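Q: Entry one of two.
A:
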Amino acid sequence: MNDAPTPADPPVRFDTKIAVLLREDLETWQRLNVTAFLVSGLGTELPEVVGEPYEDADGVPYLPMLRQPVLVFEGSKETLTAAHARVLSRALPRAVFTGDLFATGNDRDNRAAVRAVGTDALDLVGLAVYGPRNAVDKVLKGARMHP
């Protein structure tokens, strides 16, 4: 099967957006790690964001990935806190990563670390959000594209 676009195929536009907001003071390795964890959360709960499996010309199969780009933003701790409040008020699908998770080594301890802290006291270092483009843009108000 050949899924390559032909000149007659219009470009695919999405009416939704996947975005990750990172706290601006993270180390490079932390930014990459947090982004990977956050988008995995969206892919596991929202099957509509996952595309079809890949296959190369020799028929070697590869796992499916998210079907649309992930836009990565950064902002201050205050920007992240405000975005978190906005995503909750809009009830959009979201994933969080807190500073406490850098000290844990497994999924059980990660969940316990988040569960141990009240919503308003979370030490947010990353937030992923999915939803209609305009709603996600409103959540990210004050953030800037990651360089």
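Q: Entry two of two.
A:
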Amino acid sequence: MITLATVQRVAAAPPTAFFARWIDHATWSEWSPDTEWVRVDGPVRLGARGILKPKGGPRTPFTISELETDRVYTDVSRVPGARLTFRHTAAPVAEGSALTVEVTLDGPLAWLWARTAFSGFERSAIEDLDRLVALVEMSASSAR
């Protein structure tokens, strides 16, 4: 397995606020500008399938492979010879939430994908999580 990115942040908002954003696929492009759109077939649940359209890239099917309310959201996309996994976690801490995003690749061609199409994920994972934290915290402060 190849780890493309691991990003950690502490945020003031509670884990429920981040989990709500992860499962609201229609809003992903608000915090992930490389994403054109995301759709899930039916309700968001373990095993649900969807399609993600990255800007400038092909439609990519994915499956929700891990789902623990207010704690974990993981999706897996298959590309020829590899699986791309995005795992998002939120844990309650005194300050609000401890967040982690881990992006990994596994499979016989993972090395090739890591050097080509997915080589920028370390930077984009950091930027996406920072944007998500800003959006969630701004919404939380507006609601007060």
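A: Comment on entry two: The mean pLDDT is 94. The first strand starts at residue 2 and ends at 11.
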